[in-house]
């Protein structure tokens, strides 16, 4: 091969004419003959294939951005190319992305972020002094007074202090900044804690208890870590309540094949929207103490409580109020985020976790693990600081901040009630009260004929339903099978974030589609 190539190159530009020189034509002919003699090689096999890849990664599923969302993207591209559809836009009601759905940012938060990002604005009279004060404090704690520098792996010290102060105000109990870890959204914290908790082989492999329905992050991380998923079912007939007897059943059965070591709670619930009572939280804490379970409290929707009969109670607060036997022994990690609440700042990826009663040696291991990713985005840390350190009465920005916050939460409460009421008017749809969070998770009746058609297409019935809904209306929701549900029941999750008028349109389209769907497959 090398000789042939050399002959071709030399043949193109002969230097001399002598007894051994060849014409360009004869050189090319010899090269061609050499190439023909050489057998053709098949392409080299890829090192990374579906068969050789990490099987735990292959097992990961994340329904919120699964096949339905990929199909929605395809349809959007078709619309841009002018392909006619029965609708003019895709409405992405599959994910709790507040700003993408039209929610306006909180002015004060964006002012502080602007000042932190471009400190020259600190001299501008266009920004209020309370915003400048916070920006200066954050920047002074950053290397080189810049958000562009790395922070400590656990997070910027003054921001951790502000988080601890916020937790103390919220709960009326002490919070130690050394127990605060700033994270890349709450998801990063949950993943990190689970990494440390999972161990063992065979029957001693760590079992992680998660609610069904659940937020698919949990099942995805459990699959990635090759841990054992232990399902406990929320009571749909009782507004998705958590029943401790169901926890006992789940643990008892799990002990036959794994070591249940972790209990995950989502409060307020995602996708189910329930808000747990104080009595329920007490029962869960007592159960965790009794069974020696590490508690994970996902509390990212703590500001999103709409039902007048409900109130958010943090696990940390209830744990301390139960007395030292519990507060000094139950290991608890609590999570919060900038992405939800009234802020909706998903893109900043700000979050924190508070971990209490952690063994001192494990604390060192946790910091070591966090140090591998250096630090969470410092801009996200700054956004988290503004969430936990908002304007207070007497400060210049307090009135506007309070007005914007109340407006966002008030609108969400109206939309929660609107969604519940309109869904429950549709034959074959049943929706529990949306006590909190930002989703509806209605139960839908799917006729036997539709179930059989879905099975023929090798699809879950509710996936088939949601795909048809998308193709016929442009509305993108997530099938309940992606969150888990009791056998024989079907649901979908839909965010309530769109503006009221658009939400009414969405709900009407779902109603019309559902009625036609029932008629078609009756």
From TrEMBL:
<dbReference type="GO" id="GO:0042853">
    <property type="term" value="P:L-alanine catabolic process"/>
</dbReference>
<comment type="function">
    <text>Catalyzes the reversible transamination between alanine and 2-oxoglutarate to form pyruvate and glutamate.</text>
</comment>
<dbReference type="InterPro" id="IPR015424">
    <property type="entry name" value="PyrdxlP-dep_Trfase"/>
</dbReference>
<keyword id="KW-0663">Pyridoxal phosphate</keyword>
<dbReference type="InterPro" id="IPR045088">
    <property type="entry name" value="ALAT1/2-like"/>
</dbReference>
<dbReference type="GO" id="GO:0005737">
    <property type="term" value="C:cytoplasm"/>
</dbReference>
<dbReference type="Pfam" id="PF00155">
    <property type="entry name" value="Aminotran_1_2"/>
</dbReference>
<dbReference type="GO" id="GO:0004021">
    <property type="term" value="F:L-alanine:2-oxoglutarate aminotransferase activity"/>
</dbReference>
<dbReference type="InterPro" id="IPR015421">
    <property type="entry name" value="PyrdxlP-dep_Trfase_major"/>
</dbReference>
<protein>
    <recommendedName>
        <fullName>alanine transaminase</fullName>
        <ecNumber>2.6.1.2</ecNumber>
    </recommendedName>
</protein>
<dbReference type="GO" id="GO:0030170">
    <property type="term" value="F:pyridoxal phosphate binding"/>
</dbReference>
<keyword id="KW-0032">Aminotransferase</keyword>
<dbReference type="InterPro" id="IPR015422">
    <property type="entry name" value="PyrdxlP-dep_Trfase_small"/>
</dbReference>
<dbReference type="InterPro" id="IPR004839">
    <property type="entry name" value="Aminotransferase_I/II_large"/>
</dbReference>
<comment type="pathway">
    <text>Amino-acid degradation; L-alanine degradation via transaminase pathway; pyruvate from L-alanine: step 1/1.</text>
</comment>
<comment type="subunit">
    <text>Homodimer.</text>
</comment>
<keyword id="KW-0808">Transferase</keyword>
<comment type="similarity">
    <text>Belongs to the class-I pyridoxal-phosphate-dependent aminotransferase family. Alanine aminotransferase subfamily.</text>
</comment>
<feature type="domain" description="Aminotransferase class I/classII large">
    <location>
        <begin position="111"/>
        <end position="509"/>
    </location>
</feature>
């Amino acid at each position: 091969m090398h000789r042939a190539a050399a002959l071709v190159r030399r043949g193109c530009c002969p230097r001399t004419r002598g007894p051994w020189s060849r014409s360009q034509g004869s050189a090319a002919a010899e090269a061609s003959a050499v190439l023909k003699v050489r057998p053709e090689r098949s392409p080299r096999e890829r090192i990374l294939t579906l068969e050789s890849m990490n099987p735990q990664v292959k097992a990961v599923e994340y329904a919120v951005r699964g096949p339905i969302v990929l199909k929605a993207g395809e349809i959007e591209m078709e619309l841009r190319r002018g392909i006619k559809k029965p609708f003019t836009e895709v409405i992405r009601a599959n994910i709790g992305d507040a700003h993408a759905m039209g929610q306006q940012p909180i002015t004060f938060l964006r002012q502080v972020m602007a000042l932190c990002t471009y400190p020259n604005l600190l001299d501008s009279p266009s920004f209020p002094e309370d915003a400048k004060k916070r920006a200066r404090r954050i920047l002074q704690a950053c290397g080189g007074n810049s958000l562009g520098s790395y922070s400590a792996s656990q997070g910027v010290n003054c921001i951790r202090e502000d988080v601890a102060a916020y937790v103390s105000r919220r709960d009326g109990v002490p919070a130690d900044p050394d127990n605060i870890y700033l994270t890349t959204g709450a998801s990063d914290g949950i993943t990190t804690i689970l990494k440390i908790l999972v161990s063992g082989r065979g029957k001693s492999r760590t079992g992680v208890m998660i609610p069904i329905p659940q937020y698919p992050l949990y099942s995805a991380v459990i699959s990635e870590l090759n841990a054992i998923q232990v399902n406990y079912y929320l009571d749909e007939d009782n507004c998705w309540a958590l029943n401790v007897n169901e926890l006992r059943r789940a643990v008892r059965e799990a002990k036959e094949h794994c070591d249940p070591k972790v209990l995950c709670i989502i409060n307020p619930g995602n996708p189910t929207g329930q808000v747990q009572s104080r009595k329920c939280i007490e029962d869960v804490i007592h159960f965790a103490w009794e069974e020696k379970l590490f508690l994970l409290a996902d509390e990212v929707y703590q500001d999103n409580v709409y039902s007048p009969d409900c109130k958010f109670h943090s696990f940390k607060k209830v744990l301390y109020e139960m007395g030292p036997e519990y507060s000094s022994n139950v290991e608890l990690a609590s999570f919060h985020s900038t992405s939800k609440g009234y802020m909706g700042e998903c893109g900043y990826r700000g979050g924190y976790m508070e971990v209490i009663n952690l063994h001192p040696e494990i604390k060192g291991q946790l910091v070591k693990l966090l140090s591998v990713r250096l630090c969470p985005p410092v801009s996200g840390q700054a956004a988290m600081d503004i969430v936990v350190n908002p304007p207070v009465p007497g400060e210049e920005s307090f009135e506007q901040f309070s007005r914007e916050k109340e407006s966002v939460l008030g609108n969400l409460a109206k939309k929660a009630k609107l969604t519940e009421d309109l869904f429950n008017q549709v034959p074959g749809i049943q929706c529990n009260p949306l006590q909190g969070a930002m989703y509806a998770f209605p139960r839908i009746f799917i006729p036997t004929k539709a179930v059989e058609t879905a099975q023929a297409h090798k699809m879950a019935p509710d996936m088939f339903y949601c795909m048809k809904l998308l193709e016929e209306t442009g509305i993108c929701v997530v099938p309940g099978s992606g969150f888990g549900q009791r056998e024989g029941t079907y649901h979908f999750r839909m965010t309530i974030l769109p503006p009221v008028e658009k939400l009414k349109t969405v709900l009407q389209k779902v109603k019309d589609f559902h009625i036609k769907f029932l008629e078609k497959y009756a």
